[in-house]
């Protein structure tokens, strides 16, 4: 899995720059396959400078079966100015109304230091049928 930025020439001749996550897998024939999940043009930013969104993608397993997964992608910028991502997949077992799980991920801060955070991700479905998430980080310091 890696992030990339590329340009596309649209049918009207305009040039568009997109960024996204590329996931590389091997299919049942041993050939490399890729799935690209573009970062949305409009994303939500959290108070701590993270940008996160939900996405759904398909993966071809080693036995040739196709699996559909969904998860949260958190996009940050590392000390070199490059985009980095952390993907946290939603568990396969979900309830119809609400799914909640804990996750741990690393973030590269603007000074280049790496921070590990954990929290609860609550997954719901909005009125349009799209997955939405709310992330609540566990406190990092002692609780008095």
From TrEMBL:
- Name of this protein: Cell wall protein
Please name the taxonomic classification of the source: Eukaryota, Fungi, Dikarya, Ascomycota, Saccharomycotina
Q: What InterPro entries does the entry give?
A: Cell_wall_rpt
